[in-house]
Amino acid sequence: MNCEKVFAWLLGCATWDQLPSEIWHHLQECARCRKHWRRLIRLETVLATESTVNESPALENFLREHGFAPSYPPAQEQRRESATTLPMVVQSRESIQHGSALRWWMASLVVALALPLGLGLVWWLTLPSWDTVHVAGAIADTTSSANPKATDPNQSSEPSVTPGDGFHASSSSTQAQTSGVQPMQPESPFAHSTASSGTFPQGESPTPPTDLVRFLAHIHAEVQALEQLLQCALPLVWENQDCARTNHLLRLTLCVGEEVLRQADREALDTLRRDVEWFMRGVRLAHRLCTSGSDAERGLRAQAYAHRFDDLAERARMRAKSRPAFLKEGLREFREHAEQMAQTLRKLAPSRSYFGPGLQPVWQSTYPLEQALPDATERGNADGSPWPSANESAWWYVVFLGEGDAEIAGSDSPAAYLLWASIGRELWDLTMRCALRLAEESDPLQRMEAALDWAEGLLRGVAVLCSAGPNPLARQLSRHLNSLLTGTLRTNWPAVDRVEQAAQTSRRQAWQRSLQRLEDMSALLHVGEEQLPAEIQAAWRSALAELAEGITALEAACERGLPQPWVPRQPEGKPLTGVPTDPPATRAKPPGKPPAEPPRKPEKSKPPKLPFKPYKPFPERFKDIKDFWEGKKR
Amino acid sequence: MERSNEGDLLEYARAGDREAFGALVRHYWPRLLRWLRGCTGQLAVAEDLAQEVFLKAWTHLPTMKGDADHFRAWLYRIAAHALLDWRRRQGAQQRLLATWSGSRTQADVENSVAGKELYERIWQAVRRLPVEYRMALLLRVQEELSFREIGEFLGIPEETARWRVFRARALLLRQVGAWLDDEDCEVAVCRPAQQAKSAEAKAREQV
């Protein structure tokens, strides 16, 4: 018997306890087959040692829920309720066993005998006279009308009341009344906060918040996080200097780092991993930009961020100690990259600080929204408070620490918050992807494409949010889109393309594609309201109101057309070479006698020419938005 | 549980006695759950499937043919169908995630006789097997069923069951074979070999 046959026999046999003699002899002689055999035995030993799950709460729940558990008093009601949900095929069978049938028959016999006896006894005891019966009935009527609980349909409709609960409830209320203390009345879910003396609820445990409040608070925190990210990322759109872009990139990375720590507080592993990934990409890019550039000030300006990255690393270390183990790996990676970035920044400028008197912060005059400057001296608030990252953007702050009578963010438009929950993560990823590309690129064409990707994504986000009716989230996103459009068209849509390969066909085609995208976007923003679903119109109008500047810039860019290749000025007397033919405005006029001017006609006041028809149909590029609004695509 | 007792419980359960069926559930739950957990790789999914299996069993118990000897095979056949339905419902991506995420607790890993790393590798390799192979292999290894019984449990011919176990073993050896070469296993391996040797010696003496 050869090795191949033995191996096949070993793989296909049922048990190895009784080996045939041929196999046994071969195994004694052949070390290779013995090795295979040993591997197989070990493999199956490992698989067989998988322990059974003897104490499973799911088993007990299953038995209790479906009435398969042995009968005992507290489970009777539950069994009876859940049993009705099961198919009754088995129960309706007539072949009931004798034991259970006898038991039921005897029980019904006892009930049948006891019921007439009891009724007769009651009738005999309450018989004395018709007058007494009448008066007793009247008293019973007045008592029941005076007691509101007796007339409560909910109370009367209950088939049975748990004795213990009823007894305790009545005795406690009686005790409260006799001692002069008013019994607690049912109040609104936030009644606890009005009763408390301070800002935070004190004394007894507060009413647990509803799921909607938690949900809204969580989404509100997500909205705030994206808001901060956009504030850090948008300056990258219109910042042309590499040095300044590096600073913005560092701020953006710090913002993502704060988000990582926030997700660690939430113990959301998936989101934390994703944010750590973005953080690492940001750090790598910042590291490359800081070390490869020739700008001497770049390191100096970035030096102040070293403390901030140190701070992030320290806080990550603290969280790794206090948070569950499954977060540790992500936090470790995060901490290592933060430390590495801090080290790089420290090496770049060991002596000077960015916050010296002669240097102005680069971001101060760029983005109109309020921004906080990084503080080089503050080491964070990790040790200062019992909740390290306690601020109003934390979801649990709103739920557990916020003032109870304060208005809950998003309570007026929960549908918009729900929609945000479905697109918030995509907006975050889109923002990071485009921002990193913008930080890296210097070519206006590439920057324009990245900005257009970003703008189209934000526009789709606005469109999705508008389907929830007029809401602040859609307007907020529109404001950022407005900044993005105006910024990128002002900076990255030049009249003259000064890049060396500006006259190349491929580059011209790329610019043409960008122009087409701008026109499509402009057409979408000018779609007539009658083409929109009725429930969208008001929200879309209010969102467009926030986009006024952006739309104007868009119209101007479309009217101006493609950026023209830059033509260097030639010395006189030499013919121009390599001049592209497509821009007629820049073509040199041949020398000669100027033609006679035609007689001027009286100018009529023409309306300004629009680059598009005022009511275009939906552009094909944004057809998904129309489908979404019309409910075809959800 | 004795056979006669199981038969009585089954008869009571067929007649509509829920407590009797509960006793059967309690008896079969751990093994069925272990098998489902091995096949799905996720305890939560296995628990859901086990509940689904027992509810189906309760619903169709009156239509079950055969006696208590067939009940176990019938139950596992329902479980196999539920497992295949679950797998069909799962997308390819989710299957991949389930394959790699795993659901074993730390205690499971630490309490196993094999090393943690080997244990994890073997189970990862098992989860990468086609589910049909996985079902047959785990029935053979964990439940110690014969090929005929495996075929009966899964509703396939005996030879098909044998082929699936054969393929599963071969695939597993190809994937984790190098990890199974450990000196510690010599003792475990030598024991059946010595038994076989002694049996052979006895046979020679008789001859």
Quote the average pLDDT of chain A: 67
Tell me the number of helical segments of chain B per DSSP (H or I, 4 or more residues long): 11
Shape descriptor of chain A: extended
Structure classification of chain B: mainly alpha
Name the strands of the widest sheet of chain A in spatial order. Answer: 1-2
Low-confidence parts of chain B, pLDDT < 50 over ≥5 residues? 95-114, 183-193
**Main interface by residue count:** A-B, 53 and 69 residues
Order of helices and strands of chain A: HHHHHHHHHHHHHHHHHHHHHHEHHHEH
Distance between the termini of chain B: 42 Å
Report the sheet-strand fraction of chain B: under 5%
What does the model show?
- The complex is a heterodimer of chains A (634) and B (207).
- Chain A is an all-alpha fold.
- Chain A is 60% helix and 1% strand.
- Chain A is built from 26 helices and 2 strands.
- Chain B is mostly helical and 207 residues long.
- Chain B is 79% helix and 0% strand.
- Chain B is built from 11 helices and no strands.
Brief digest:
The complex is a heterodimer of chains A (634) and B (207). Chain A has 26 helices and 2 strands. Chain A is mainly α.
Key features?
heterodimer, A: 634 residues, mainly alpha, two-stranded parallel ribbon, 1% strand, B: 207 residues, 11 helices, globular
Give the SSE layout:
The complex is a heterodimer of chains A (634) and B (207).
Chain A: H1 3-12, H2 21-29, H3 31-48, H4 57-65, H5 75-83, H6 98-125, H7 130-146, H8 148-151, H9 153-157, H10 163-178, H11 191-195, H12 211-233, H13 235-238, H14 242-266, H15 269-292, H16 296-302, H17 305-322, H18 328-348, H19 395-401, H20 414-440, H21 444-466, H22 472-491, E1 496-497, H23 505-525, H24 534-546, H25 548-560, E2 564-565, H26 623-629
Parallel strand pairs in A: 1-2
Chain B: H1 3-14, H2 18-40, H3 43-60, H4 68-89, H5 92-101, H6 106-111, H7 116-128, H8 131-141, H9 147-154, H10 158-176, H11 185-206
Helix pairs in contact in B: 1-2, 2-3, 2-4, 2-8, 3-4, 4-9, 7-10, 8-9, 8-10, 9-10
